[in-house]
Design brief:
globular; alpha+beta; ATP binding; 18 strands; 21% strand; D-amino Acid Aminotransferase, Chain A, domain 1; eight-stranded antiparallel β-sheet; four-stranded parallel β-sheet
Length: 428
C-alpha cells in the first residue's frame, strides 16, 4: 500500500542541492529493487521539479560537478544544440532521441501517419485498417488548398480545430465552423512573415462525457529503443477534465473544449485538489461499471494498437542510439463508442505537480523509469513488468499475456497492457 504521509510537491527554486535534499518529502512508495550502497552514478538535471527529487533520492546517485556524468536529464533544446553530434560513452544515458520531433511535433506526426497509411494502402496490407486512430488532419499552410477542397465535402455544421504545430499547454488553439474564421490566420503578419504553421483537424464532437464534461487521458510510454522497437507503458496516468460542461453551442469557450491544466488554472474558481483530474485507475473502474469487462478490454486493446502503430510510423525515421531513451506523454480522447483517438504525443510531459496525488504519481513513474534504464545493473533483462511499467513491445514483437479463464476454461492471450491496475503492495 502507498504510505500515508502527507507529501508536498517541491516548488521550482534556485536553492542549493544540499538544502533541497533536507527538504525532500518521504518517499511516496517503496523501492522496486534492493538498494546497493556501493553504486555511484553521476547525474545532471536541468529541471528543479519532480525529476530532480527522484534523482536526488535514488541510492548511490550524486550530482555531477564536472564534465563526467552517467545520466543527463536535458531539455529538448539542449539535446538539439549540445548533443546533436555528441559521442556518448558506454555508461552515459540521456532522456531524448535526437530527432524525436518526428513523433512529437504535430505536423510531423500527421505527415508520418499519412505516409504510413499510403504505403499500407498501396501494398494492400491488412494493417491499413489499424491506422484509423487520428481524425482527418492537414498541415497548414502547405496543405491549405487540399484542406479547402476536403472542407467542402463535410456538412456545414462540422467543427474543426486549429493547433500550432509546436504549441503546448493549449496556447494558440481555437475551433471554427466557417473558413472565413481563419482568414486572419492566413494573412501575413506586420513583419511580412508567412502565417504561423498550424495543423487543422476534424473535431471529435461526440466525446465520451463524465459528469457532462469532456476529458482526455495522459498515458506514459517509455521507449528504450526504436530499432529494434522496444516500449513500455505505465499502469498509472490520469484523465484531465475541462473546466466547464460540454456543449457545441459555443466553440469559442476554451473552458468547455480544452482540458489543459494551464487553461483551467485561469478560471477564477480553479481548485487543483478537486474535480479536474481522475487517476487512470478511477477512470478504468468507471468504465467497467458502465460497460462490460469485455468491452473495456477491447478499448484497451484498441489503445495498445494506437500506441504500437504510432511508434511504427516513425520507427525507421528516429535516429537510433542505445544511449537514448524517452518518456512520452500520450494524450488520448475517447468518443461515445469508446474509440480512442490520438491527440498528440509530448516529448516533455509536464513533471511539475499540480496536486499532492499528481506529485506521488509522477514520482512513481519516474522512479520506475529509472529501474528500467537500470544504470545500477540490477535487472535480469527478461522482465516484462518493472514497477508500474508493462512491456508492450519487445524488440519489435508485441508482448502478450494470458487472461481468463473464459466460460470454457480457455486462457485467452491479450496484449500486455494493464492500465489502471497498479497497486503498490502487489505487482504481478
Amino acid at each position: 500500500m502507498l504510505r500515508r504521509e502527507r507529501v508536498t510537491p517541491v516548488e521550482n527554486s534556485d536553492q542549493s542541492l544540499n538544502r533541497r535534499e533536507r527538504s525532500l518529502p518521504p518517499l511516496p512508495f517503496r523501492n522496486t529493487f534492493r538498494e546497493n550502497s556501493s553504486i555511484r552514478i553521476l547525474f545532471k538535471c536541468v529541471l528543479s521539479n519532480t525529476i530532480l527529487d527522484v534523482l536526488s533520492r535514488r541510492t548511490g546517485w550524486e550530482v555531477a560537478t564536472g564534465e563526467e556524468w552517467n545520466f543527463h536529464w536535458a531539455t529538448r533544446e539542449w539535446m538539439s544544440t549540445s548533443f546533436d553530434r555528441y559521442k556518448f560513452t558506454s555508461r552515459q544515458f540521456v532522456n531524448h532521441f535526437r530527432n524525436d520531433f518526428e513523433l512529437t511535433r504535430k505536423d510531423n506526426l500527421i505527415k508520418n501517419f499519412k505516409k504510413m497509411k499510403r504505403t499500407l494502402e498501396k501494398n494492400k496490407s491488412k494493417e491499413f485498417a489499424k491506422y484509423s486512430f487520428m481524425p482527418a488532419s492537414y498541415v497548414l499552410p502547405s496543405e491549405y488548398h487540399i484542406f479547402v477542397e476536403e472542407f467542402k465535402k463535410y456538412p456545414d455544421n462540422t467543427i474543426w480545430i486549429m493547433k500550432p504545430v509546436a504549441g503546448a499547454q493549449g496556447r494558440g488553439i481555437f475551433l471554427f465552423r466557417r473558413l472565413k474564421h481563419i482568414q486572419e490566420w492566413k494573412k501575413k503578419d506586420v513583419t511580412g512573415c508567412d502565417a504561423q504553421p498550424y495543423v487543422v483537424q476534424a473535431y471529435i464532437s461526440r466525446p465520451y462525457l463524465i459528469g457532462g464534461k469532456k476529458f482526455d487521458a495522459r498515458i506514459y510510454v517509455l521507449v528504450t529503443s526504436f530499432r529494434p522497437l522496444t516500449a513500455w507503458v505505465h499502469r498509472e496516468g490520469f484523465a484531465r477534465f475541462s473546466h466547464s460542461r460540454y456543449t457545441t453551442d459555443c466553440v469559442e469557450d476554451a473552458f468547455v473544449h480544452l482540458t489543459n491544466v494551464a487553461i483551467a488554472k485561469t478560471a477564477p474558481d480553479y481548485d487543483p485538489e478537486k474535480g479536474l483530474k481522475w487517476s487512470l485507475n478511477r477512470l478504468i473502474r468507471f468504465y467497467e461499471s458502465s460497460f462490460s469487462k469485455q468491452r473495456v478490454q477491447e478499448m484497451i486493446s484498441d489503445l495498445a494498437n494506437l500506441i504500437v502503430n504510432s511508434l511504427k510510423c516513425v520507427e525507421s525515421l528516429i535516429i537510433q542510439d542505445s544511449h537514448c531513451f524517452e518518456l512520452y506523454g500520450y494524450d488520448v480522447l475517447f468518443d461515445e463508442d469508446l474509440k480512442p483517438w490520438l491527440l498528440e504525443v509530448n516529448a516533455s510531459p509536464s513533471l511539475t505537480a499540480s496536486s499532492q496525488d499528481d506529485y506521488r504519481l509522477k514520482y512513481r513513474v519516474l522512479s520506475h523509469m529509472l529501474d528500467i534504464i537500470d544504470l545500477e545493473g540490477k535487472r535480469e533483462g527478461n522482465e516484462i513488468h518493472v514497477g508500474g511499467f508493462d512491456q508492450l513491445i519487445n524488440k519489435g514483437v508485441i508482448v502478450e499475456r494470458t487472461r481468463g479463464p473464459d466460460p470454457h476454461n480457455c486462457f485467452i492471450p491479450s496484449v500486455n497492457l494493464r492500465l489502471g491496475e497498479y497497486h503498490e503492495s502487489k505487482i504481478k
